[in-house]
Amino acid sequence: MKSELYLDVRYYETDQMGIVHHSNYIRFFECGRSAMLKEYGLPIEKIEEAGVVLPVVSVECHYKYSARMGDTLRIVTRIEKVPMAKMVIKSDIFNQNGQLVCDGVVTLGFLDAETRHPVRCPESLAELIEKHIND
Predict the structure, then answer these.
(1) ∠92-95-99 over CA atoms, to 5°?
(2) Region 117-121 average pLDDT
(3) How far apart are the first and last CA of the chain?
(4) Contact status, residue 125 vs residue 63, Cβ threshold 8 Å
């Protein structure tokens, strides 16, 4: 399962030198995964409406090259394995010149929205990922 999203770097995402602040890459990862789930017909809101929330368990981010004010970023997001208890989402962010700006991995858990106890991946999400795993 794979998706691409293009975002322009906005002024408020940069520091005084016009370089994207490191914390914003985590937000870009979230934009990518939200867009991917929406693109495949199962936005996060629908998963939550079904009674499951997806908290972030861990984040890895490897910075390679500085993104700057005025850049257009291509966020490539993918899920390579059908989740059971946790969902691992990989992201690569490139600038308009095709340079890898950063890559990372976000791991999400699944919790029952009411009890906040861990649950398995919702069937609808697992089926969707399995159907598109090789896209």
Answers:
(1) 75
(2) 96
(3) 5
(4) no
Are the C-beta atoms of 125 and 83 separated by less than 8 Å?
Answer: yes
3-state DSSP helix/strand/coil % of the chain, to nearest 5: 25, 35, 35
Contacts of 102 (CB under 8 A, 6+ apart): 25, 61, 62, 63, 64, 65, 67, 92, 93
Note if the pTM is more than 0.90.
yes
Catalytic residue among 8, 15, 112, 135: 15
Q: How many residues are listed for the chain in this entry?
A: 135
Q: Is 14 helix (H, G, I), strand (E, B) or coil?
A: strand
pLDDT one-digit tens code per residue, 66-76: 999 999 999 99
Residue whose token pair is 């691409």: 4
The pLDDT assigned to 26 comes to: 97
Q: Known catalytic residue: 15? A: yes
Structure tokens at 58: 């861990």
Q: Which two tokens stand for residue 99?
A: 């340079």
Strands 100-109, 86-94: parallel, antiparallel or unpaired by DSSP? antiparallel
Q: What distance in Å separates the CA atoms of residue 91 and residue 24, rounded to the nearest whole number?
A: 14
